[in-house]
Inverse folding.
């Protein structure tokens, strides 16, 4: 293998190896996700029928189940809206960071590659 | 250098300055696109169900899955980095005024590539089929008017999947081949006017090796970021409400929609596209700063201000 490949490949594998270590934090991330998107009260959630219970299910029960599910979806949406409201400051900061970063890098590119410089400076 | 077969065709001389990072941004984006394709195929094959009833639940299952959640996070982050790299690539081309003469064709194809990329990003957002995806689709429905019923008859997620995984990729590959052939035919873009070239050259293979190295490092960093960040999946879609904002590449449209009305959603992208196509016509001289560059920088400043405004203004219901 040529020398030039070693450093980037090593860097790539080191970073890749670090990713599973970081997934300890990833566990918290999932917990947070669950909190943000499934905040609707579980009491209103329709019960999932077990295999044995399926024989007893009637059209009425299915209808009730369907309306309960709709109610649950609505509650989830409202909860999602509230959660999004709480997350809004973070989203604002994230967007500001992304746009700031892109504009900063664009300015850097313009300074570095500006016309009128010598090839070495470019 | 010993090369054979296909590699021999890539072993041609390019200017030494092409080894600078500014001349590798498009190449790095190309490598990221390959990873986007692979990760997208894995998500579609093993997790996503393209029906209105099942799409959101399948997204929930993907997010809950140990394996697929990481792939989804990486797919979403790479999509963001891909767009950011393309914007920086455009900035470098404007900085070195590389749309002169014959190279204008390459620029025009590049603008079309940017448009196809936005189709990818938009359809990817709708595919989630959460509140954000549904609202994005509602806006498209409004833009298409009566035609939307014919275009999207049946399953919307399925049609978006076809757009995301068949139509847009075919368009992108065709345009990309044209773009790369033009770059090969016309040569790597020159330094900015007035810059003195060293006259040295390197093999294009060496250039690509460095592009691959930078791409690998970028992908590694994204993989790391994916362990810390879960791309949002909001609640199940609810009709007749609007409380989400578009993702950052489209966020500049949000204040315009709020203050100017829905018509800005088709008018402004048209104006932006026309302005980008017109920029090479504004090249006037060999001066240090050119009218084309001034117009581009003013556009970037306006885009940044509108995007930040979009992030900071309160959500509004534009459609109901």
């Amino acid at each position: 293998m040529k020398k030039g490949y070693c450093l980037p490949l090593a860097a790539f594998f080191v970073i890749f190896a670090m990713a599973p270590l970081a997934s300890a934090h990833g566990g918290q991330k999932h917990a947070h996700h669950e909190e943000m998107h499934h905040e609707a009260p579980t009491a209103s959630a329709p019960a999932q029928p077990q295999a044995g219970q399926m024989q007893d299910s009637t059209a009425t029960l299915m209808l009730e189940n369907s309306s309960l599910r709709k109610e649950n979806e609505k509650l989830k949406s409202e909860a999602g809206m509230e959660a999004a409201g709480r997350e809004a400051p973070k989203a604002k900061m994230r967007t500001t960071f992304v746009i700031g970063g892109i504009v900063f890098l664009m300015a850097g590119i313009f300074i570095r590659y500006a016309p009128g410089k010598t090839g070495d400076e470019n | 250098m010993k090369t054979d077969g296909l590699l021999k065709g890539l072993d041609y001389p390019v200017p030494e300055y092409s080894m600078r990072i500014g001349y590798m941004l498009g190449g790095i984006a190309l490598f990221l696109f390959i990873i986007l394709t692979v990760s997208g195929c894995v998500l579609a094959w093993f997790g996503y169900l393209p029906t209105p009833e099942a799409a959101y639940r399948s997204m929930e299952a993907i997010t809950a899955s140990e394996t697929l959640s990481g792939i989804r996070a990486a797919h979403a982050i790479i999509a963001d980095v891909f767009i950011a790299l393309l914007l920086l690539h455009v900035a470098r081309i404007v900085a070195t005024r590389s749309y002169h003469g014959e190279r204008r064709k390459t620029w025009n194809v590049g603008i079309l590539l940017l448009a196809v990329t936005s189709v990818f990003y938009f359809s990817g957002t709708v595919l989630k089929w959460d509140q954000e995806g549904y609202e994005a689709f509602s806006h498209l429905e409004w833009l298409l008017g009566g035609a939307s019923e014919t275009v999207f008859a049946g399953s919307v997620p399925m049609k978006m999947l076809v757009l995301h995984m068949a139509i847009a990729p075919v368009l992108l590959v065709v345009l990309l081949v044209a773009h790369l052939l033009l770059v090969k035919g016309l040569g790597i873009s020159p330094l900015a006017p007035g810059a003195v070239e060293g006259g040295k050259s390197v093999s294009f293979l060496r250039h690509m090796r460095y592009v691959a190295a930078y791409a690998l490092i970028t992908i590694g960093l994204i993989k790391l970021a994916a362990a810390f960040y879960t791309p949002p999946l909001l609640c199940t879609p609810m009709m007749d409400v609007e409380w989400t904002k578009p993702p950052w590449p489209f966020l500049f449209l949000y204040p315009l929609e709020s203050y100017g009305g829905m018509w800005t959603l088709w008018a402004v992208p048209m104006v932006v596209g026309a302005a980008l196509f017109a920029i090479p016509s504004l090249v006037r001289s060999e001066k240090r700063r050119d009218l084309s560059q001034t117009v581009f920088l003013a556009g970037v400043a306006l885009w940044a201000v509108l995007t930040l405004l979009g992030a900071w203004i309160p959500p509004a219901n534009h459609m109901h």
In short: Chain B touches chain A through 69 residues (CB under 8 Å). Strands of chain B lie at 13-15, 201-203.
